Amino acid sequence: MSETQGDVRVRSVRTQRSDSFVESAVEFGGGVLRMGLSVATLPFALLPSESRQHLRNATKEVMYAFAGLPGDLAKVASTAVEDWAAKTDGAAKTAPKDELTTS
Length: 103
Prior knowledge:
The chain is mainly alpha-helical.
């Protein structure tokens, strides 16, 4: 076998970050969050597999509903603004009487 020559690819490895208080606090908070999530999901791990699948599907549908909510609200707001603009266009043709001027 012949040995290949040239550049050798090395996979990226995370470098050690500096020891600042903020980074330590973020790492600690992330660990606490992960542990809390593990404890909160422990009862779900004890459920039968079919029930877990139903729960996953229900959670996914709820997340899709929350994700689609801003788009739906934007559609409703767009329709309301267009209706309001159509009503004000008709009213803009006749200028209101100025009460401060005497004629």
